[in-house]
Each structure stands twice: as C-alpha cells, then as structure tokens.
Amino acid sequence: MIASELQKLVLFRNMTETEILDALRVLHSMEKHIKKGSIFLHAGDTTNAMGIILEGSVTIESNDMWGNKTILSLVGAGQYFAETYALLPDEPMLVDVRANEDCRILFLYIGYLSESWSSGSWKEKILKNLLLISSHKNLHLSGRSFHTSPKSCRGRLLSYLNSISKQKHSLEFDIPFDRQQLADYLNLERTNMSKELGKMQNEGIIIFRKNHFKLIQP
Amino acid sequence: MIASELQKLVLFRNMTETEILDALRVLHSMEKHIKKGSIFLHAGDTTNAMGIILEGSVTIESNDMWGNKTILSLVGAGQYFAETYALLPDEPMLVDVRANEDCRILFLYIGYLSESWSSGSWKEKILKNLLLISSHKNLHLSGRSFHTSPKSCRGRLLSYLNSISKQKHSLEFDIPFDRQQLADYLNLERTNMSKELGKMQNEGIIIFRKNHFKLIQP
DNA sequence: ATAAAAATGTGGCTTAAACAACAGACTTTC
DNA sequence: GAAAGTCTGTTGTTTAAGCCACATTTTTAT
Predict the structure, then answer these.
(1) What letter does residue B12 receive in the DSSP assignment?
(2) Best interface-test mutation with A: which of B19, B126, B180 has the largest number of A CBs within 10 A?
(3) Which 8-state DSSP code applies to residue B127?
(4) What is the pLDDT of residues A150-203, one digit of tens each?
(5) Which residues of chain B have pLDDT under 50?
(6) pLDDT in tens, A103-125
C-alpha cells in the first residue's frame, strides 16, 4: 500500500504524500490480511487502533449468549471501523468485527493524535472536543440498538433497565421517561409493555412505582 | 450565560475564558428559550447550528406519516444535539427535536470552524477528517434505527430497500447482504422474511433474484 | 375541593412474527 | 460430475405482540 493510494481516502483528504507518510509512521500504521469469516475484534475487549478497509468488507455485529446475531452495519472498502473505540480506548467494545470476505486492513493507533490535548489554537481544541462528543454520541446510538434488538418485550426492558442500573452504579434508580416515552424508545406498544412490567413485578424481578425502578437480584 | 459556566462543558474543555469568548463570537452563538413540547428542529430541514442544552432536556425522535413515534435518544443538560447535521449541513435531518421540558439552549454555528479546511498541521487535518468520518458514522447508525423501527416485517424491508434505492439513484440494485445477513440487519427471522419477500413479489411490489432487487412503482 | 385532563394498568381478541422441520436450488470441492 | 455443503423458500404450529375498549390512578387547573 502506497501513499498515493491513500490520498483518495476521506481520512487523508487535503494531505500531501509527505504528510501521509508522517502520519503513517507516527500512528504506528500496520497492514494485516484477514480471512473471510474470522472475528478479529471481540466484544468486551478494548482497542487503540482504528481500521481502514483497503480491500474486502467487514460486518459490525453483536452476538448474544443465546446465539442471536444482530448486524449493526456493513463496512466496505475505503471505509472505517472501530474509530469510536480507538478514540475512547477505555470503552469496551459492544460489538464483534467479522471479515465478511478476505480483507486487507490498515490499522492506525490514533491515540497518538491527541497526546498534547490542551495545546494548539482554540479552534483545534474545540475540534478535538467535538470529536470526543461525536464518538460518545456514537456509543449512545449503538446502545439504543442493543435495547431494541431483543425481539421480546421483556428482553428489551431488561436490556434497558440493566444499562441504566450500570450507568447509575445502583440497583435502584429513576428513569427519565414516562411510560409512553419508554415504549417509544424501546419500540414497543405501551399497554403491552405495562402488562409485561406488571408481570415482572409479580415475579419479583423488579419493583417500580412511577419512574422509580429497583432491580432484584435472585 | 457566562464563560465560566461553560468551562465545565466537554466542548470547551482545556480552553481559557478568553478562548471561549472568542469561540462564542466567531461561532455566532445565540441563546434561546424553548417551551416544553414544541418541536423546534424538523425532519427534512437542514441546520447549520448545533445545540448545547444549558437547562432542560430534549428528545430526538422520528414521527412517521402513520403517527408512529420513535424516540432515538434523550439529551439532557450539559449535552449536545444536531452536531452531526451542523457538521454535514447538506444532510437533511432524519429526526425531529422536541423540548421535553422548558429549555434554555445555546446554538453554535460550527461550520465557521472548518472554513480553512486544508490549512494547519497534518494532525489538525486528520482530526478534521476524523470528525467528518465520525459524523457520517452517526448518520449510518441512525439510518439502521429507521429500518428497524417499523414493527412489521414488510415495513422494515420497504424502509431498507427504499433507502438503498435512493442511495444508488435507481430502482434496480444489488444489496450487499445474503438473506440471513439481511434478516440479522433488520432484526427479523430469516424464514419469515423470505415469506414476506415472496408475498411482495406476488403482489407485484418488487422483483428479486438472489441479491438483485427491483422496486416497482404503482 | 372539585372537575377536568393526563397517565397508567387490565382484559380479551386478533394477527403476525418466531420457530421447527424440511424440500429444493445453487455452489464448491475433489 | 458426484457429493457435500450452503443458501433459499415452503408449510404448519405456537406464542406473544399489537390493538381496542375501558377502568383506575395521578396530576393539573380553576
């Protein structure tokens, strides 16, 4: 892979060949070949590298413990993946990345970009901050995908309630939605969801009153 | 609203008060008060401004023509919205933004940040490019949310096929998924989806063979 | 305090999606 | 080109989500 090839990529837009070569060196770029079907980034791991697909394509997918698969996106040649996690290297990945065909992939350790976080003009600082914000927004959007991917009403409720519980570091918490909004967020029908909440309370899984919820451990 | 308040926000992290005041001026910042319940950014419109919520909260939602509502996210005080669309000002918004309570909101025209797109060090250039990539990724994630929000199998298929058709500017196109992958992407069960595709073909809505699809206008 | 309005919950019916089992078509491999 | 494997479509059954009508509770307004 040569610099002139890379100039076509959005990531290197407006950069000279020399600048691209500098970037590749500083960001510890590394090219890898990956076989069709293999999962090469795993949910739960963290990563410092983003990927650029030079050839082939990958799927971003979630595989839960009951064998259900959800494909969040398909990323093709000339596109990028894991940039969110590489920018937020403490966040464990929510997804697997699988080679959809034989792939040639360039990995870049973009953490090296933001070593001097507070230097530069205010425009540069605000750009860095925006990048963080955009990455977090990405995580939130992915989060909702996980809450809506279970097919059952109860599955979605549990996914959502568990995530709020983790967020608040407590089994007891308020949610920011009323019933109709919660149903709209989880893509459920309100009355059906009320029924399910009632059942779950009867079974002793949860206790709730209005917006206040408490999860019960078995 | 005063600069020292804003220093707590991620967007202005690592910036001095003077720098923040410069930013507010250059980005044409403007504070607005918005009443609970009102939709103040509409799907289909474009926007040049991102919003920072100083007080209150907003919901990001989609309201389709059959009256179905989907809430994509709830954005609270100290958080941001529409930054994706402000960074990609040609993209029409896919969502409405509604004040969930009475709100105090600061609007920033962040397009002014990237006027001199090709100046600066290579690090600065690559940061700008990354920001674009992250924003586009955001749009894709939102896109999938819309394909999975219809409750019916047919609704999801039509949402997906229509979007691909628009993307390719043609009523005839190949999709990048096999049946199992398409089902996994749309959160459907494969055999059921096959049934529905068959029905749709019988009804003359679509014609397909393998990965090749053709949409029929009535 | 009372009435009006909004939010939440319940029961019953209908419908469509999930699931299992299998058949046929198409690919790949040797 | 035969066999194995993969992908796709069909049928029938089960189950659970959607939906309607209405009851109950909670909140708001006067």
Answers:
(1) G
(2) B126
(3) H
(4) 999 999 999 999 999 999 999 999 999 999 999 999 999 999 999 999 999 999
(5) none
(6) 999 999 999 987 776 678 888 89
8 Å CB contact of A128 and B127: yes
Q: Which residue has the tokens 């029929």?
A: B216
Which tokens belong to B137? 């990724």
B159 vs B135: CA distance, rounded Å: 22
SS3 state of residue A106: strand
Residues in chain B: 218
SS3 call for A80: strand
Crossing angle of helices A179-186 and A190-202, rounded to 10°: 100
Nucleotide nearest to A193 (CA to C1'): D17
Q: Which nucleotide is nearest to A156 (CA to C1')?
A: D17
Strand ranges (DSSP E) for chain A?
30-34, 39-41, 50-55, 58-63, 69-75, 80-81, 96-99, 103-108, 172-174, 206-209, 212-215
| Confidence at residue A115, expressed as pLDDT on a 0 to 100 scale | 76
Q: What is the mean pLDDT of residues A129-136?
A: 96
